[in-house]
Specification:
alpha/beta, Rossmann fold, Ribosomal Protein L25, Chain P, 26% helix, binds adenosine-5'-triphosphate, binds magnesium ion
Length: 562
């Protein structure tokens, strides 16, 4: 699949297809005009940008139609779930800017679900099956031919009731029996071929402890949980479309409130993976530092990287909702954060690859304070003072010895403006024995400082700088795409997604930053002028500043690849 890039993304006009369904329902007075959604994560990992799309959609729709959204943990698989995940999920949703109406757990409904299962057994719509997992899948067969009925399918109601109760009481080992819905072994939809409702699992649950040793399957728990909560529109991703007949079947068989399931295309982004299983593997096998490693597509990773809630919400809004799967180019996500940080980030100067610049005609031992604008996009942010002196650091790439004509930065004999300061002229170059440039010598024109008679004199280039005697050092972490191929889920024979990890996705450098960085307010956003957007990492301390690069000022990746 071709990834969509920024220019192909058209702004959303009118209603998306889910809003159209909802407005139709409201017009028809369905659910008394109420709109009640839910976000149902399984607490088996951290949330990622795909979940963010679902969150924005569910909460956004409820807000738009004056409804409510529940947070429901789909905790029906005790083996993989944990409170650590529950806590992180709540933190991430709130950070994104949403507040749920109520917090529920599918496990809150275990007793009700059990009672409903009894009801289905009594009505001859469910039975206990002693077949093994393999036997059951063999009986199901293939979609093109009817399946085979289990030899246990026609057990009496009383036998089923007795066995199911004993399953609950813990009499049987894991995997020895299941409860199945009695639907249609000939259905072309495999999900309707007597799906499993309950399995035996002697495992401790993070909420219900050892109270249960039978656990409901997703298909039996999900719709009924929606129903109990009075959800009107149960929005889920496309792979559940084939489950919808089953969702509907349970609601009808139980004669309970029947929410409408609506499916939309899940979000895929290139150069990353989005399955929780793979993300967990990256963490467990230490391919990344943690769930919140800034290279991860997790919400906590993006947050640590310097993404703002607004940028993620804008991204979700821009991509919209579709009924067909597609892949979104990661540069669109980067575009969204760049746009937001341009408005918010304070400007500062940093030198990542330093080269010494000496102003020969600036008096030794002298320094002065210059004024710099904190954010040209927001004058309320005011100005700050910058120390200037005879010895500066500039970016090595801003000097070139044999420069071509269109190089407007520094070269011998040419002039540039030092941002917020003076116009300087490069006079000579100092080299070491190997011929490596160790310093460049310049002269400055004192009349060209801001507010001076010649301050408006124009030169072609402006470069950033730091006073060597005043600046601070900082660790700067630079990130690249985690995978070097657009689709790491698509693997060649004999390989796994891990074979496509980009070995250069993290680069740690020592850089110079302005002396103003005395406090280390985590996550504060900055624009390193002419370079990109950066934020202060949580590893940062008064002794050691640590910055993460959020995104470069311009989309350099697209250029590289054209
Ligand atoms: P995984 O398959 O990686 O474990 P999941 O879909 O099982 O992910 P859940 O915790 O069940 O993860 O997801 C909670 C909600 O988020 C579901 O409604 C699911 O459809 C939605 N969701 C998950 N991944 C995406 C995605 N990539 N794009 C949009 N919505 C998603
Ligand atoms: Mg799931």
């Amino acid at each position: 699949m071709e990834a969509k890039n920024t220019s192909e993304t058209t702004p959303k006009v009118g209603l998306n297809f889910i809003e159209a369904i909802i407005e139709e329902d409201i017009r028809n007075g369905k659910n008394d005009g109420k709109v009640y959604t839910r976000f149902p994560p399984e607490p088996n990992g951290y949330l990622h940008i795909g979940h963010a799309k679902s969150i924005c959609l569910n909460f956004g729709i409820a807000k738009k139609y004056h409804g409510k959204t529940n947070l429901r943990f789909d905790d029906t698989n005790p083996v993989k779930e944990d409170v650590e995940y529950v806590d992180s999920i709540k933190e991430d949703i709130q950070w994104l800017g949403f507040q749920w109406h109520a917090e529920y757990y599918a496990s809150d409904y275990f007793e009700q679900l059990y009672q409903w299962a009894i009801q289905l057994i009594e009505e001859g719509k469910a039975y206990v099956d002693d077949s093994t997992q393999e036997e059951i899948s063999r009986q199901r067969g293939v979609p093109t031919a009817p399946g085979i009925e289990s030899p246990y399918r026609n057990r009496s109601v009383s036998e089923n009731l007795d066995l199911f109760q004993r399953m609950r009481q813990g009499e049987f080992p894991d995997g020895s029996r299941v409860l199945r819905a009695k639907i249609d072994m000939a259905s072309p939809n495999m999900h309707m071929r007597d799906p499993i409702m309950y399995r035996i699992l002697h495992a401790e649950h993070h909420r219900t402890g050892n109270q249960w040793c039978i656990y409901p399957m997703y298909d039996y728990a999900h719709g009924q949980s929606d129903s109990i909560e009075g959800i009107t529109h149960s929005i889920c991703t496309l792979e559940f479309e084939v489950h919808r007949p089953l969702y509907d079947w349970f609601c009808k068989a139980l004669r309970i409130h029947h929410p409408q399931q609506i499916e939309f295309a899940r979000l895929n982004i290139n150069y990353t993976v989005m399955s929780k299983r793979k993300l967990l593997q990256l963490v467990q096998e230490k391919h990344v530092r943690a769930w919140d490693d800034p290279r991860m597509p997790t919400i906590c990773g993006l947050r640590r990287r310097g993404y703002t809630p607004e940028s993620i919400r804008n991204f979700a809004e821009t991509i919209g909702v579709a009924k067909r799967d597609n892949v979104i180019d990661i540069s669109l996500l980067e575009f969204c954060v760049r746009e937001d940080l341009n408005k918010k980030a304070l400007r500062t100067m940093a030198v990542l690859d330093p080269l010494k610049l000496i102003i020969d005609n600036y008096p030794e031992g002298q320094s002065e304070m210059l004024q710099a604008v904190n954010n040209p996009e927001n004058k309320n942010e005011g100005v700050r003072s910058l120390p200037f002196s005879r010895e500066l650091w500039i970016e090595r790439s801003d000097f070139m010895e044999d420069a071509p004509k269109d190089f407007f930065r520094l070269t011998v004999g040419k002039e540039v403006r030092l941002k917020y300061a003076y116009i300087i002229k490069c006079e000579s170059v100092e080299k070491d024995a190997e011929g490596k440039i160790t310093a460049i010598h310049c002269t400055y024109d004192p009349q060209t400082r801001s507010g001076m008679p010649d301050s408006s004199r124009k030169v072609k280039g402006t470069i950033h700088w730091l006073s060597a005697a005043h600046c601070k050092t900082a660790e700067v972490r630079l990130f690249d795409r985690l995978f070097y191929v657009p689709n790491p889920d698509e693997v060649e024979e004999g390989k796994t997604f891990l074979d496509y990890l980009n070995p250069d996705s993290l680069q740690i450098i020592n850089a110079f930053v302005e002396p103003m960085f005395i406090n280390t307010n985590h996550l504060a956003h900055y624009q390193f002028e002419r370079i990109g957007y950066f934020c202060i990492d949580k590893d940062s301390s008064a002794e050691k500043l640590v910055f993460n690069k959020t995104v470069s000022l311009k989309d350099t990746w697209t250029k590289h690849n054209k």
